[in-house]
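STRUCTURE:
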């Protein structure tokens, strides 16, 4: 629901507020791509495509750093970000303890 409100604000109000709201979503976007890469990496690992799986695993580690960096740098702490990080770490633990 939060994203629809942001899109609504972008379309209706525009301006600098819009830019700030979009920029504050950068860490969440990075986290979402990390979750997707984890799932795809797991599938590739199961299909014995180890090189691609390792590349996605490395992407996950690097993007975790940048997610935290941008969240601190932009002061962009959101409830959604906390939930997404928890989902990633929980999923990562399940996959790595398989």
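SEQUENCE:
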């Amino acid at each position: 629901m939060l994203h629809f409100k942001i899109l609504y604000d972008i379309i209706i109000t525009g301006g600098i507020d819009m830019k700030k709201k979009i920029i504050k979503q950068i860490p969440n976007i990075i986290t979402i791509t990390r979750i997707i890469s984890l799932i795809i990496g797991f599938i590739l690992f199961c299909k014995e495509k180890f090189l691609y799986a390792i590349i996605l695993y490395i992407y996950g580690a690097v993007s975790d750093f940048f997610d935290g960096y941008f969240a601190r740098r932009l002061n962009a702490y959101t409830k959604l970000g906390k939930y997404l990080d928890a989902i990633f770490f929980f999923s990562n633990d399940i996959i790595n303890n398989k």
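REMARK: The helical segments are 2-12, 15-23, 26-46, 50-73, 79-96.
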